[in-house]
Amino acid sequence: MKSELPILVVGGGIAGLSVALAAAPAPVRLLTRAINPRSTASLLAQGGIAVAVGPGDTPQAHADDTCIAGAFHNDRAMVELLTSQAREAVDWLHALGVPFDTDEAGRWRLGREGGHRCARIVHAGGDATGARVMDALVATARRATHIQRLTGVEVDGLVVRDGVVCGVCLIHPDGRREAMHGRAVVLATGGIGGLFAQTSNPPDADGSGLALAQAAGAALRDLEFVQFHPTALALPGQHSLPLLTEALRGAGARLCDAHGRPLMAGVHPLADLAPRDIVARRVWQAQREGGAWLDARHLGQDISVHFPTVFAACLAHGIDPRIRPIPVVPAAHFHMGGVQVDADGRTSRPGLYAVGEVACNGVHGANRLASNSLLEGVVFGRRLGALLRQLPVPDGGGGRHRIVRRPPALAPAGLMQLRMLMSHAMGPVRSEASLTAALETCAALAARGWQARLAQAMLAAALQRRSSLGAHYRCDTVPAPA
Ligand code: SIN
């Protein structure tokens, strides 16, 4: 029946779940690669959610900090939408059962992270905010009768009729293929950290949704802006690294070199709490000069109480952060670029929507401000859900269907090669020579897998932007004027 045609949401992280819940009562089919509904990048988010509720703070000040961190490449209207809706988004999550941490007086405890000029971050379970938010959203979605979940499925194509995206092509866990029709298709597939040698993302945050949009000819934007988190736990040879949240530095932890000398002194007025791109580049440089460490010893036993995730990750790798500084490396963390969308998540392809990290509406500019990503997922996810709820259901008849498929994936050896290539050429410090060489190698790999085709587009965008801006730092050209 026409009214039963579902909204197809690809991806079950915070953005996808926010769309699905806000679309009620319209039927939603949530399509996830993972079998376990909690298994997403959102779950790993240790930073919290930025919201201007502290004394003297305002959404305007939050917007200003977002644009400063973003090197003013941000779309100010999107930023203001984000920061003005932050309180409502946090209240919504709270009402769904997210247990935000409170102080002795019962008020939300506000932390500080890089680029924020005041304490403005709410957390849940200390550094387990992503996990607590996912718990609440997954539980709510399970109870919601309008949402049907299909797990362990790979979406590798889109169904298009008369130029309008009207469905997806699925591969079920048993290898069976299916074309599934929907009233709208939403990509909420997360980021691209999986294309780099070291990332704070899970390995399957590999740009699959972005590549799907690329295959469908949707406009992509700002692909060169990749954020590196300065403090992932240094575990040589490992791909997916545990994060050491920036909130540790907000609580007084300091970056230092092998001799204990402070890394950020004299680099930026906010020192260890400078915007993330600046800290990541300093750590990247220190790496080449003997290594970088995060000294959190002053926290003593408190680290196990306020940062249980970090504490457990360190102990699991034989490092007691109460006793010695923690070795750190920069790791691919967040993609500011993505599928070009408007404020409502519309892509340039009718019927196709995108939200969260896979999308780019310009809110993060050239460098995302800490703790704005979960917020983005909730604010723009709910906005898109509300839009889709009201969308007239298209009638199913008419023109011919066409399938647009993402090319096959790289074999494991090719993917390893690509990750090394991307980390070398598209890391925190880039040059024309390394980008050009990587683009040539990538061209040869592109015929063998979609990840390389996507990487090609990212490398080309980085090559084209000749001056440094935010997270895109070219060591061979002059910085853009401030
Ligand atoms: C962190 O906790 O340092 C990461 C938070 C974020 O990416 O916003």
From TrEMBL:
Protein's UniProt keywords contain Magnesium: no
List this protein's GO terms for biological process. Answer: 'de novo' NAD+ biosynthetic process from L-aspartate
* Pathway named in the protein's UniProt entry: Cofactor biosynthesis; NAD(+) biosynthesis; iminoaspartate from L-aspartate (oxidase route): step 1/1
Domain FAD-dependent oxidoreductase 2 FAD-binding: start-end pairs: 7-374
- Kindly indicate whether the keyword Flavoprotein belongs to this entry: yes
Pfam families membership: FAD_binding_2
Q: Which UniProt keywords apply?
A: FAD, Flavoprotein, Oxidoreductase, Pyridine nucleotide biosynthesis
Reaction equations catalysed: L-aspartate + O2 = iminosuccinate + H2O2
Q: Which SUPFAM superfamilies match?
A: FAD/NAD(P)-binding domain (SSF51905), Succinate dehydrogenase/fumarate reductase flavoprotein C-terminal domain (SSF46977), Succinate dehydrogenase/fumarate reductase flavoprotein, catalytic domain (SSF56425)
Provide the E.C. number(s) assigned to this enzyme: 1.4.3.16
**Name of the featured protein:** L-aspartate oxidase
Q: Name one GO molecular function term.
A: L-aspartate oxidase activity
Similarity comment: family membership: Belongs to the FAD-dependent oxidoreductase 2 family. NadB subfamily.
Query: Would you indicate the residue range of the signal peptide?
Result: none
Cofactor(s) required, per the database record = FAD
Q: Which domain of life is it from?
A: Bacteria
